[in-house]
């Protein structure tokens, strides 16, 4: 998606340790017009698939998933939660995810009643690096007996390999921008096409 | 908003300790068609105000704010973050909020570059109870010199007083459903009109 690549190139910042900051428009400040066009792009890519539910993970995926869902017939968006809260039932699917940005493991949960065996699920997230967060969401879908129809990602860090590993396993991963390399010294970013 | 009241009455669950669970459509599973109609209602209420930014707090406010922002000329949505992350700059406004649902205090931060003196801010959140989360967002706006133009809330627990205290201070609080009382024994919910 050319628009997203240009936003990353113009407003993104490359940091040491493979960190790409795009919080000007993607995950601290949110450009909802861009989110809508991202949703439109995913809807075109996954046009042949039946999507009954969109699953994402808090917090950065939520805004993108909710705006994008409008392009999937207002499919319900469920966001997996990163910590126990007294507002959640005990009847949950649970897994564990290692966060690259937070540098620690944390439990991820979804209430069983919102993820079911009949669901055809589109996973959506802002970033795909090593794929650990997505593996967690896939675990939750498998536990529920739901079908993962596809994976919509805004920014994939291709050089970290998580996306290609998922593709090799047969998952339909549609990343709207794939960063092939980035240089914290010069700030240069190259994209896969 | 009659639709929201009916959803709360039909799908909400009243728990002991003044807990109202509406995670079937508002803050675990998200009905984005409803979010769109909520955004339309807030746009009608705040029609005379100039809104340049929408500020919310992770995680439950994000989806609602992003879908609603489409009714405010795609105003940028900024979500305050609840914990330090290596992906955030050091240059932040910080405050502390006590969470009713998590039953602990936590720091809330927003990057200075995304909240500015010239901003006319609409605060959006899923719940308003004692108002502590909103006080945190107002603190952040005051620190930035931004103007709080209004507050859009999905569900206000009127009996906890946070909304009325804000109104008494002159804030324009538009809650789409105000629960006047609720009974964990019978499940009965009455709304303020």
Q: Which terms summarize this structure?
A:
homodimer, 193 residues, alpha/beta, Rossmann fold, six-stranded mixed β-sheet
Describe the structure in brief:
Two copies of one chain form a homodimer. By secondary structure, the first copy, chain A, is an alpha/beta fold. Chain A is about 30% helix and about 35% strand.
What is the ordering of alpha helices and beta strands of chain A? HEEEHEHEEEEHEHEE
- Specify which chain pair forms the largest interface: A-B, 41 and 40 residues
Helicity of chain A, as a percent range: 25-40%
Q: How are the strands of the largest sheet of chain A arranged?
A: 5-4-8-9-10-11
Whole-number tally of structural domains of chain A: 1
CA-based gyration radius of chain A: 16 Å
Query: Which regions of chain A are unreliable across 5 or more consecutive residues at pLDDT < 50?
Result: none
Please state the average pLDDT score of chain A.
94
Q: What distance separates the N and C termini of chain A?
A: 10 Å
Kindly state the number of beta strands of chain A: 11
Largest beta-sheet details of chain A: 6 strands, mixed
Q: Into which percentage range does the β-strand content of chain A fall?
A: 25-35%
Principal-axes geometry of chain A comes out as globular
CATH class of chain A: Alpha Beta
Oligomer state equals: homodimer
Structural class of chain A: alpha/beta
Count of DSSP H/I helices of chain A: 5
